[in-house]
Design brief:
Elements: H1 3-43, H2 49-77, H3 91-95, H4 112-133, H5 140-162, H6 168-173, H7 181-199, H8 220-239, E1 242-243, E2 257-259, E3 264-265, H9 267-288, H10 292-307, H11 315-338, H12 347-365, H13 380-407, H14 415-420, H15 433-436
Antiparallel strand pairs: 1-2, 2-3
């Protein structure tokens, strides 16, 4: 075989490997949504269990077609430096309109579909993050609107800003967020905060003097099992944050992995730092509270505190950041609750607060590190600008659209329905009659 023929065979094998890699990463990411559904149902009282599950199913389902119609296009339209208006003339934005060859099966482009699928699962994750915070009182119709907004519009614009080699945060400020601490977790956490302000607390959550009552879910085992399943899914999520530099990935490199920004990375760095931050988060939460809910939430929080720099951390640093996340989240949740905000699962703290820690930690500890590609080097100011953009980018649309839904009278179920249980609107019982008769209120 000639050198050209050998290269063609190698390229074909590399492309096939890359396609298979993202196919299975996407499949593993489905565990995130199975885990979120279990965890939210476990945190719900018996009379609200199925409504929580239905809410997750519908969010996932509606994000798929809306991301096909406009979400994927938005990523490329905001990946050329635009901040407010999309760049409709961008090359890939044109290629990924829903009627183009890039959005369907063809033998010349075998990669676009698997990349699109991975991003769809990222999108569904943003909605699942918000989902738990609003259980037991949001109307399904309004929830679908908000899920599509955060999953197919808000987060993907932020991804164009800060998760693309051409985004304005990357090229102008050196923003570095490899594992999406800001792009996914801050966006979702602060979006949830905006919604919760307008949604209001569940009936019975607060007393007249402002003190809070615990509204315990019906199954702690289901909750912590669901949280562990989310961790499994996050190995697919974080793995899909890497690019294999085959020719279809637009790289001339012969081997190795690239970050979303095109910089060099290894699976080893992701393995070391994901597991070390996971362990640190659990241990940190254990030191503060022996509650298994917060311990498993600490695992997630720990990963998010390390996520932005997964490609660069020394594993001991990732452990320390994870430990910090596990320590912080119960206190952050307590503070948010003291404001009269009812976050049923602590999503604002776990994702918003720890996403913020993760973004800023890169600026504090990795300032001056060379840019990935042609952008500015990492700096604290750049990470701070990115954190502000992610916080406001999530909070403002979440607050504004939920305020509109509130004024239309369709955001929240009535107090009477809440007292009966939101499952009153679901045509089947969650559990056998003997269990339904028990008092799990």
């Amino acid at each position: 075989m000639s050198p050209e023929e050998v290269r063609a065979v190698v390229d074909a094998a590399a492309n096939a490997s890359m396609e298979a890699y993202y196919w299975w990463a996407t499949g593993i990411m489905v565990c995130i949504h199975a885990g979120f559904m279990m965890y939210e149902m476990g945190q719900s009282r018996v009379r609200n269990v199925l409504a929580s599950g239905v809410k997750n199913i519908l969010a996932f389902a509606f994000i798929i077609p809306t991301f096909f119609l406009f979400g994927w296009w938005l990523y490329w339209a905001y990946g050329t430096g635009n901040i407010f208006l999309p760049d409709a003339g961008a090359e890939f934005a044109q290629y990924y309109v829903p009627w183009s060859d890039g959005m369907g099966p063809n033998l010349q482009d075998q990669a676009s579909g698997v990349f699109w699928a991975a991003f769809v699962l990222f999108s569904a994750t943003t909605a699942s993050i918000v989902s738990g915070s609003v259980i037991e009182r949001i109307r399904i119709s309004s929830w679908i609107i908000l899920a599509v907004l955060v999953g197919s519009v808000v987060w993907i614009i932020a991804a164009g800003w800060g998760w693309s080699a051409g985004g304005w945060l990357v090229t102008k400020w050196g923003y570095h967020d490899v594992g999406a601490a800001g792009v996914v977790h801050m966006i979702s956490g602060f979006f949830a905060l905006g919604v919760l302000i307008n949604l209001g607390p569940r009936v019975g959550r607060f007393n007249a003097d402002g003190s809070a009552n615990d509204l315990l879910g019906h199954s702690v085992p289901m909750t912590i099992a669901g949280l562990m399943i989310i961790i499994i899914g996050f190995f697919g999520f974080l793995g899909a944050c890497l690019i294999y530099p085959a020719p279809m990935a637009g790289s001339t490199a012969d081997a190795g992995w690239l970050t979303i920004y095109g910089g060099p990375a290894t699976l080893s760095s992701f393995a070391f730092n994901t597991l070390m931050s996971f362990g640190g988060g659990i241990i940190g939460a254990y030191f503060i509270t022996k509650d298994p809910f917060w311990m498993m939430s600490g695992a997630l929080a720990g990963i998010f505190c390390a996520a932005a720099g997964l490609d660069l951390w020394y594993p001991g640093t990732a452990f320390a950041l994870g430990f910090l996340g596990g320590v912080v989240i119960p206190y952050s949740h307590k503070m948010i609750t003291s404001w009269g905000i009812d976050d049923a699962v602590g999503a604002v703290s776990v994702h918003g607060t720890c996403g913020l820690i993760g973004v800023l930690a890169v600026g504090v500890l990795l300032g001056g590190y060379p840019a990935m590609g042609e952008g500015e080097p990492i700096s604290f100011i750049g990470q701070l600008v990115g954190a502000i953009a992610m916080g406001l980018g999530g909070f403002i649309p979440g607050y504004v659209v939920s305020w509109i839904l509130k004024k239309c009278g369709i955001l929240r179920t009535s107090d009477k329905v809440q007292e009966l249980g939101v499952d009153a609107e679901v045509p089947v019982p969650a559990y056998p009659e003997s269990m339904q008769s028990r008092d799990y209120s």
